[in-house]
UniProtKB/TrEMBL annotation, chain A:
Residues 54-89, 91-126, 132-167 form the EF-hand domain. This is Calcium and integrin-binding family member 2. InterPro entries: CIBP (IPR051433), EF-hand-dom_pair (IPR011992), EF_Hand_1_Ca_BS (IPR018247), EF_hand_dom (IPR002048). SUPFAM superfamilies: EF-hand (SSF47473). Keywords: Calcium, Cell membrane, Cell projection, Cytoplasm, Magnesium, Membrane, Metal-binding, Repeat. GO terms for molecular function: calcium ion binding; magnesium ion binding. PANTHER family: CALCIUM AND INTEGRIN BINDING FAMILY MEMBER 2, CALCIUM AND INTEGRIN-BINDING FAMILY MEMBER 2. It is found in: Cell membrane, Sarcolemma; Cell projection, Cilium, Photoreceptor outer segment; Cell projection, Stereocilium; Cytoplasm. One of its GO terms (cellular component) is sarcolemma. Its main location: membrane. SMART domains: EFh.
């Protein structure tokens, strides 16, 4: 498989593997030769059918956060971005930024109560009662909100993440 | 992702003197560079407000749409209020620094640059884990909606900032800054273009030291090569796919067991290679004359005796002379042609040095893993926020199978309900009689556990004495009888080690601890206590040689054989435990009880078994140099057997399990009782125990340590110039004052660290208060703005 690409700062073996995966999703559309920087984007439907993402409840949000146009279609660079942030080599701060984007459903740079409710429903597949969901949301905001505006800004989120040593290992997809 | 053009700030690095860190109180000094920009921004914003008020005067019905459909703070809950200044307030709030994270390239670069400025001054590689966010918004960038001219200026400024960095740090910063790949690539392109213009190169590089630039290039080249090598190693990792499979189905908690196994395998391979190269291979090249090799029967793999006794496996095989010594001429005097290269090799010295070096290297590796692991899992701060952490960090993204994902959802749901219930319970604590009952139950359980440990130890002691008597009697019997008697003690010890954990599980079920975390710790404590006390008793028996190996001439080989038997028995019992505990239990549950539940993989028990096996290996390395090889084989087989059994028979654990925290605990347990205990045992043997007279590399000496003393004396005699070398063992190692001094230094370091931690706790509390106060300030200002608008409305 001839692969011609501009060398990025990532290790080329990883990028080559990702290119293989990107290509096999749409072999007719994705070219093998990337030196001319083709403008190819794969739609969200193809990407969320990848085996690594298929069963993830947050798959749409993940793909949307990494897509340039916010609609969910990923170019190859976005694709590499996504899997390199989700790999174990990415630093904690980078992961925190994207985790915040993923959990921010209405993209207002805040995790408000509505975002939390959606997150909880996706996590528990709507097994919790409405009263329990309200209680959990209130408690979470109470615990994590530091400047008292009733929702979590990025600083609050990052501070809370820093207390969770497991974050680096759970926010990780192996490819 | 919308992106707004920005103006980035040049952070002049010479506003503060070198070495003085910017402190939270020193706002004035840092603000001097931002004054101009603050004025610019405030004038622009004021201009925008003026413009909008004028527009409103012309079109009273037009409402400028807010930039984002959101409610800002809790102060404006009424959405229907058609407040004239509402939209403007929203726009101002949307432009606040804290809300523009991740939106613009220059902003991100500038923020990252500011944060790492202090660390870069120290010219060390900034580690993002050590960076702490400052609560002050003054160090963040100011976002401006400005025209394109400003944006190109901003880009140029950010590029200049980047150019002023040394190339190693620049590439590192580009790696870690949170921008998308395309932007990083374009930045690199621009940087390389800019670098080619000589004017800027003179500006950026330090003109007075071209060798500094050379040095940077070399460092950069080495670092790139190292990263490429690491990446290659990373992708060529053994078991990469197997670990992905396990993580995908069972999550990070079960995966941590297999990663621990992999770490032990690497440690053992390292020790084995060291011993192979320096001790085993050379002795194999110069085999000593053996009296009469015994015939090989298959039983040797189990007992380690028989034809294995006089083999490379044990201590007794190794010679106490210098191998390949050119000065040892034949007594008859016939002239043999001298060989061209004859390098003498002092076997006893090599033996003791290699064992010492492998222990020292293992110690360093373990301490490094503990440090690394502690850095990831321990933080300074409050312990609240459990629920928030559970919501955001509990979902394991590695899990990809549908059934496992469903299970994970159910687990998280259960854990959230448990946490809510726990918090409800905490608000109404137990009454006094209930608490007393709880405490008595706990005390009873602990007394029972300690009693069983004592009972097991006494049982092992009497059993070994009984077996010794039997051994004397069976010496006349058949080979099978002899071997059978040898295997009895390891069998009993392994049986106890396998059955007692189940008993402790029953005890824990009766006890009913408050939190599942405490349950795991208590179980680990009890199991570890049992294993270590039994091992301590066995070590005492081996060294005192009153019961075991008392009749043998070459007692070290005998002890080595005993340890070999213990390792093999441990492996057999692990297999049986996997077979009965998991396979049979699953069959029973499926066929007899007809339930869909499968047995759970008990992580703590399995890890403790690994630690026990590794302790045996470390204890036995001195007496059986090939024992690490046996352990390597055992771990390889164990990986595949455990993985197969896991996939077929088990389900993922339902209790919460903090994987990284528990990994730290396990590595610490591996270091503290296990490795240190083995090191103490080996040191004591080398220091004070008299080796046997007739076999092994230390025949005839008083202690093994004497080899070193003899060698140092020889060195002194042969070359008086290095007489200072003998100073080292005499004053450093044998003198107790030096050891006291070392202990004092370690204690002082621990004391200082405790005080530093306390100080950090206090600072965190102060910073949290400051953040809350700034939130209050924001609300106050918004209220003031609204009142100003209302006032203007009234006047207009």
């Amino acid at each position: 498989m001839q692969l011609k690409m501009r060398r990025g700062e990532l290790d080329s073996a990883f990028e080559r593997k990702l290119h293989g995966r990107y290509h096999e999703m749409a072999p007719n559309v994705v070219p093998m030769d990337y030196t001319k920087d083709p403008d190819v984007k794969l739609p969200m439907q193809l990407i969320i059918n990848m085996p690594e993402l298929k069963e993830n409840p947050f798959k749409e949000r993940i793909v949307e956060s990494f897509s340039e146009d916010g609609e969910g279609s990923l170019s190859f660079n976005d694709f590499v971005d996504m899997f390199s942030v989700l790999s174990e080599m990415a630093p904690r701060e980078l992961k925190a930024i994207y985790a915040f984007k993923i959990y921010d459903f209405n993209t207002d740079n805040f995790i408000c109560k509505a975002d939390l409710e959606k997150t909880l429903n996706k996590l528990t597949r709507e097994e919790l009662t409405a009263e329990e969901i309200t209680l959990v949301c209130e408690k979470v905001i109470e615990e994590a909100d530091m400047d008292g505006d009733g929702k979590l800004g990025f600083a609050d989120f990052e501070n809370m993440i820093s207390k969770a040593p497991d974050f680096l290992s759970t926010f990780h997809i192996r490819i | 992702m919308s992106r707004l053009p920005t103006v980035t700030l040049r952070v002049p690095e010479n506003t503060e003197s070198d070495g003085r860190e910017p402190s939270p109180d020193n706002e004035g000094a840092l603000h001097s560079s931002f004054c101009q920009l603050i004025e610019e921004q405030s004038s622009l914003v004021a201009g925008a407000i003026e413009m909008e008020l004028q527009e409103r005067g012309r079109e009273p019905s037009a409402l400028l749409p807010p930039p984002h459909p959101m409610a800002t703070t809790g102060l404006e809950p009424e959405q229907g209020e058609q407040h004239p200044g509402y939209a403007t307030t929203l726009r101002i709030l949307a432009n606040m620094p804290s809300r523009t994270i991740g939106r613009s390239r220059g902003a991100i670069l500038s923020q990252y640059y500011n944060r790492t400025a202090r660390l870069r001054r120290r010219s060390s590689r900034p580690s993002l884990q050590q960076l702490s966010l400052t609560a002050r918004s003054s160090l963040r960038h100011y976002d401006l909606e400005s025209d394109p001219a400003h944006s190109t200026l901003a880009d140029k400024q950010s590029l200049l900032e980047l150019l002023s960095l040394p190339p190693a740090q620049r590439s590192h910063m580009l790696l870690e800054v949170p921008l998308s790949l395309e932007e990083k690539r374009s930045l690199r392109r621009q940087l390389s273009q800019k670098r080619s213009t000589p004017g800027l190169r003179a500006h950026s590089a330090d003109p007075t030291s071209p060798c500094a630039w050379c040095q940077d290039c070399i460092v950069l080249g080495c670092r790139t090569f190292w990263y490429r090598f690491l990446a290659l190693v990373h992708t060529a990792q053994p078991w990469h796919y197997a670990l992905k499979q396990i993580g995908g189905r069972f999550g990070s908690s079960v995966l941590s067991y297999f990663l621990f196994l992999k770490m032990l395998l690497m440690l053992n391979i390292f020790s084995f290679l060291l011993l192979l190269v320096f001790v085993v291979a050379l002795q194999a090249a110069y085999p000593p004359a053996v009296a009469s090799p015994r015939p090989f029967t298959g039983l040797e793999f189990l007992t380690g005796a028989g034809s294995f006794t006089h083999s490379l496996l044990y201590y007794g095989y190794y010679s106490n002379t210098t191998l390949n010594d050119p000065s040892a001429s034949s007594p008859s005097g016939n002239t043999s042609p001298p060989r061209a290269t004859q390098l003498p090799y002092n076997m006893p010295l090599a033996y003791v040095f290699t064992i010492g070096a492998s222990f020292f290297a293992t110690c360093i590796l373990l301490m490094y893993s503990i440090y690394h692991s502690f850095g990831k899992s321990y933080h300074v701060g409050s312990s609240t926020g459990v629920l928030a952490i559970k919501v955001f960090c509990a979902w394991d993204f590695k899990v990809v199978q549908r059934r496992s994902v469903k299970l994970q959802s159910e687990n998280i749901c259960t854990q959230l309900k448990e946490l809510l219930a726990e918090q409800r319970l905490r608000s109404c604590p137990l009454s006094l009689p209930q608490r007393l009952r709880h405490i008595t139950v706990l005390l009873l359980a602990w007394l029972l556990a300690l009693g069983t440990v004592l009972g097991c130890v006494v049982a092992v002691h009497y059993f070994s004495e009984h077996m010794h008597v039997q051994e004397q009697g069976a010496a006349a019997g058949s080979a099978w009888q002899q071997e059978g008697v040898l295997l009895a003690l390891p069998l009993i010890v392994s049986l106890l080690n396998t059955l007692m954990p189940h008993f402790y599980n029953l005890l824990a079920a009766w006890e009913k601890q408050d939190s599942p975390g405490a349950e795991v710790y208590v179980a680990i404590c009890r199991n570890l206590l049992l294993k270590m006390v039994v091992l301590g008793l066995l070590c005492y028996q081996w060294l005192s040689r009153r019961v075991v190996c008392s009749a043998k001439e070459c007692w070290e080989t005998c002890v080595g054989q005993d340890l070999y038997r213990f390792v093999v028995m441990d492996f057999i019992f692990t297999l049986l435990d996997t077979g009965f505990g998991e396979l049979l239990w699953r069959l029973i549950l499926e066929k007899k009880l007809k339930s869909k539940q499968k047995p759970e993989f008990d992580i703590a028990r399995n890890v403790l078994e690994l630690i026990y096996g590794q302790t045996l290996t470390w204890l036995g390395v001195l007496f059986a140099p090939l024992l690490p090889a046996v352990q390597v084989l055992k771990l390889l087989l164990l990986f595949y057997i455990k993985k197969t059994s896991l996939m077929q028979n088990c389900q993922s654990p339902s209790k919460p399990w903090q994987a990284s925290h528990m990994s730290t605990v396990f590595i610490t347990l591996l270091f503290f009782p296990s490795f240190l205990g083995a090191a103490v045992f080996v040191s004591y043997t080398i220091w004070s125990v008299k080796p046997s007279e007739t076999c092994g590399p230390f025949q005839g000496l008083q202690t093994i340590y004497q080899t070193l003393k003899v060698w140092v004396e020889l060195l002194e005699e042969s070359n008086p110039n290095i007489a200072w070398f003998s100073w080292i063992p005499q004053y450093l190692v044998e003198n107790t004052i030096f050891l006291f001094f070392l202990t004092g230094v370690v204690l002082a370091i621990i004391y200082l660290n405790i005080h530093v931690l306390r100080g950090q706790h206090r600072i965190i509390r102060l910073l949290e208060e400051q953040i809350a106060n700034e939130g209050e300030d924001k609300r106050f200002l918004i209220r003031k703005i609204r009142s100003i608008y209302e006032h203007k409305e009234h006047c207009a």
